[in-house]
Write a structure and sequence with these properties.
- It is a single chain.
- With about 325 residues, the chain is of the alpha/beta class.
- Helix content is about 40%, strand content about 15%.
- It has a 7-stranded parallel β-sheet, sandwiched between helices. A two-stranded parallel ribbon has the order 7-10. A two-stranded parallel ribbon has the order 8-13.
- Strand 2, helix 2 and strand 3 form a beta-alpha-beta unit.
- Helix 5 runs parallel beside helix 6 and helix 7 crosses helix 11.
- The radius of gyration is 20 Å and the shape is globular.
- About 45% of the residues are buried.
- The mean pLDDT is about 95.
């Protein structure tokens, strides 16, 4: 059988890079869309780019921007993907409150352009959209499942909800095999330093090494459903192997507070977090979701998907990774 062909947007990000690793291990040919080609050699896929057995043989990178639909159409049509994973887009609810138009353009309209391109291809391409628990905003019950009403409270959440609904509409109206994965927080050493998990892990490592003394955070009361990113990427792949396209939540079903995260990170290094963590009111988010917790039972039941790394193991891996960099 010929190798399957996959196309990934956001290939240099946390999820995109793990997905590229996974697909290449399964003998796929992988195409990736890159927005900043000058940064590829220092990105999460630098190990792939530096491998002459992979680069330009089984991995092909394409420069492109979502605003240029003509170029996107040309690149995707030539790649002829069997599977399309759309993971790219502005990824911060906090920043979306400052840049709502940019967020809606990069998250919402980009998805619609891709769906239109795939609708015109002369072969069927399975499409996965990476949505977010932010589509639920502040839900009236917990944990949330695939039938929980969408009620976003940020421009980011609203743009994600739009994209998720468009993927569903194209599945119904045009019979395209499109699906959305509703992702709850998921972390790894490849996570951007802008996220609180990495900020905490990095600070704990630096404090242990004597490179800083304090860590400033907003509220420690906020709770999240945190999981291990490679598990979630595996779930994405499993979704596109299913016989029928459908939407799934990937989550752990367990809540932990920012204080839990801080305490565990500092504990890994035999530090007392109370000696180093300071409150900064400027870091408090103006719109805070109410304890987003996902119910992954549908993914467990229909896909056989499982979480393999618990909260404590995840935090330890983040802290050890940051320590090793110093």
């Amino acid at each position: 059988m010929p190798a399957k062909i996959a196309f990934i947007t956001g290939i240099t990000g946390q999820d995109g890079s793990y997905l590229a690793d996974l697909l290449l291990s399964k003998d796929y040919i992988v195409h990736g869309l890159v927005h900043r080609p000058d940064s590829v050699s220092s990105s999460n896929i630098k190990h792939l780019v530096a491998d002459p057995k992979i680069m330009e043989k089984r991995l092909f990178l394409h420069n492109g921007a979502f605003e240029d639909a003509t170029h996107l159409r040309r690149v995707i049509s030539r790649a002829k993907p069997d599977e399309f994973y759309h993971l790219a887009g502005q990824s911060s609810p906090r920043i979306s409150l400052e840049l709502p138009e940019t967020t809606v353009e990069s998250v919402g309209m980009a998805t619609l352009r891709l769906l239109e391109i795939l609708r015109d291809l002369d072969h069927t391409t399975k499409f996965l959209y990476a949505s977010s628990s932010e589509v639920f905003g502040s839900p009236s019950y917990s944990p949330q499942d695939e039938l929980t009403p969408l009620n976003p409270t940020t421009p980011y959440g609203a743009a994600k909800a739009f994209s998720q609904q468009m993927a569903r509409i194209y599945r119904i109206a045009y019979k395209l095999p499109t699906c959305s994965v509703i992702l709850y927080n998921h972390e790894s050493p490849r996570r951007s330093g802008n996220f609180v998990t990495m900020k905490i892990a990095r600070a704990a490592a630096r404090i242990k090494k004597g490179q800083q003394t304090t860590l400033e955070l907003g509220s420690l009361n906020g709770q999240r459903d945190w999981g291990w990113a490679p598990d979630y990427v595996n779930g994405m792949w499993m979704m596109l192997q299913a016989q029928a396209a459908d939407d799934f939540i990937l989550a752990t079903g367990r809540l932990h507070s920012v204080e839990d995260l801080v305490a565990q990170a500092f504990k890994c290094l035999d530090l007392n977090w109370r000696d180093h963590v300071k409150f900064d009111p400027a870091l408090v988010t103006t719109v805070e979701p109410i304890s987003p917790c996902g119910n992954p039972s549908k993914a467990h039941r229909l896909l056989g998907w499982q979480n393999t790394v618990n909260f404590e193991q995840m935090i330890e891996r983040l802290v050890r990774s940051e320590s090793d960099k110093l």
